[in-house]
Protein backbone atom coordinates (compact mmCIF):
# COMPACT_ATOMS: atom_id res chain seq x y z
CA UNK A 1 0.00 0.00 0.00
CA UNK A 2 1.15 3.51 -0.72
CA UNK A 3 0.87 6.18 1.99
CA UNK A 4 -2.00 7.66 -0.02
CA UNK A 5 -3.90 4.37 0.18
CA UNK A 6 -3.29 4.11 3.94
CA UNK A 7 -4.62 7.64 4.50
CA UNK A 8 -7.66 6.87 2.34
CA UNK A 9 -8.49 3.72 4.31
CA UNK A 10 -7.99 5.53 7.64
CA UNK A 11 -10.20 8.43 6.56
CA UNK A 12 -12.94 6.01 5.45
CA UNK A 13 -12.79 3.99 8.70
CA UNK A 14 -12.83 7.03 10.97
CA UNK A 15 -15.16 9.16 8.85
CA UNK A 16 -12.63 11.99 8.94
CA UNK A 17 -12.51 14.85 6.44
CA UNK A 18 -9.35 16.91 6.01
CA UNK A 19 -7.29 18.23 3.08
CA UNK A 20 -4.85 15.71 1.67
CA UNK A 21 -1.91 16.58 -0.60
CA UNK A 22 0.49 14.17 -2.26
CA UNK A 23 4.08 14.74 -3.35
CA UNK A 24 4.81 11.96 -5.85
CA UNK A 25 8.45 11.18 -6.61
CA UNK A 26 8.02 7.71 -8.14
CA UNK A 27 9.49 6.95 -11.58
CA UNK A 28 6.98 6.40 -13.15
CA UNK A 29 3.82 7.36 -11.29
CA UNK A 30 1.55 4.36 -10.68
CA UNK A 31 -2.16 3.99 -10.04
CA UNK A 32 -1.69 3.38 -6.30
CA UNK A 33 -1.18 7.11 -5.84
CA UNK A 34 -4.57 8.00 -7.33
CA UNK A 35 -7.03 8.20 -4.46
CA UNK A 36 -10.44 9.81 -4.00
CA UNK A 37 -10.66 13.08 -2.10
CA UNK A 38 -7.03 14.14 -2.67
CA UNK A 39 -6.90 17.95 -2.60
CA UNK A 40 -3.67 18.44 -4.58
CA UNK A 41 -0.99 16.35 -6.30
CA UNK A 42 2.59 17.62 -6.69
CA UNK A 43 4.66 15.83 -9.35
CA UNK A 44 8.19 16.19 -10.71
CA UNK A 45 7.48 16.57 -14.44
CA UNK A 46 4.88 16.99 -17.16
CA UNK A 47 4.94 13.30 -18.05
CA UNK A 48 3.73 12.44 -14.55
CA UNK A 49 0.97 15.04 -14.81
CA UNK A 50 -0.11 13.63 -18.19
CA UNK A 51 -0.20 10.11 -16.76
CA UNK A 52 -2.35 11.17 -13.80
CA UNK A 53 -4.73 12.81 -16.27
CA UNK A 54 -5.10 9.48 -18.13
CA UNK A 55 -6.13 7.93 -14.80
CA UNK A 56 -8.92 10.48 -14.37
CA UNK A 57 -7.22 13.02 -12.10
CA UNK A 58 -8.49 16.52 -13.02
CA UNK A 59 -5.81 18.78 -14.49
CA UNK A 60 -6.36 21.53 -11.89
CA UNK A 61 -5.42 19.14 -9.05
CA UNK A 62 -1.92 18.41 -10.41
CA UNK A 63 0.98 20.85 -10.07
CA UNK A 64 4.40 20.25 -11.63
CA UNK A 65 6.94 21.39 -9.03
CA UNK A 66 10.09 19.47 -9.95
CA UNK A 67 11.97 17.04 -7.75
CA UNK A 68 12.69 18.26 -4.23
CA UNK A 69 16.44 18.15 -3.67
CA UNK A 70 18.20 18.82 -0.38
CA UNK A 71 20.46 21.92 -0.57
CA UNK A 72 23.39 19.79 0.65
CA UNK A 73 23.69 18.44 -2.89
CA UNK A 74 24.01 21.97 -4.27
CA UNK A 75 26.93 22.60 -1.92
CA UNK A 76 28.60 19.42 -3.23
CA UNK A 77 28.17 20.59 -6.80
CA UNK A 78 29.59 24.04 -5.99
CA UNK A 79 32.61 22.36 -4.43
CA UNK A 80 33.15 20.00 -7.38
CA UNK A 81 32.54 22.49 -10.19
CA UNK A 82 30.03 22.60 -13.03
CA UNK A 83 28.30 19.52 -14.36
CA UNK A 84 28.04 18.38 -17.92
CA UNK A 85 24.65 16.88 -18.68
CA UNK A 86 23.70 15.01 -21.81
CA UNK A 87 20.24 13.72 -22.57
CA UNK A 88 20.50 10.17 -23.89
CA UNK A 89 16.87 9.48 -24.77
CA UNK A 90 13.83 11.71 -25.05
CA UNK A 91 10.22 10.69 -24.65
CA UNK A 92 7.26 13.04 -24.81
CA UNK A 93 4.36 12.39 -22.40
CA UNK A 94 4.99 8.65 -22.16
CA UNK A 95 4.91 7.76 -18.46
CA UNK A 96 5.79 4.11 -19.09
CA UNK A 97 9.21 5.23 -20.39
CA UNK A 98 11.88 7.32 -18.74
CA UNK A 99 14.29 10.01 -19.82
CA UNK A 100 17.87 9.14 -19.01
CA UNK A 101 20.54 11.70 -18.16
CA UNK A 102 24.27 11.20 -17.97
CA UNK A 103 25.86 13.53 -15.43
CA UNK A 104 29.58 14.10 -14.99
CA UNK A 105 31.66 16.52 -12.96
CA UNK A 106 34.77 18.13 -14.42
TrEMBL record:
Membrane-crossing segments per the record: none
Molecular function GO terms recorded: hexosyltransferase activity
Domain named Diacylglycerol glucosyltransferase N-terminal: residues: 3-69
Start and end residues of each stretch annotated as Disordered: 75-106
One Pfam family this sequence matches: MGDG_synth
BP GO terms, sorted: glycolipid biosynthetic process
Cellular component GO terms held in the UniProt record: membrane
InterPro entries with a match to the protein in the record: Diacylglyc_glucosyltr_N
Biased composition (Polar residues): 90-106
Listed name of the protein: Diacylglycerol glucosyltransferase N-terminal domain-containing protein
Organism expressing this protein natively: Planoprotostelium fungivorum
Taxonomic lineage of the native organism: Eukaryota, Amoebozoa, Evosea, Variosea, Cavosteliida
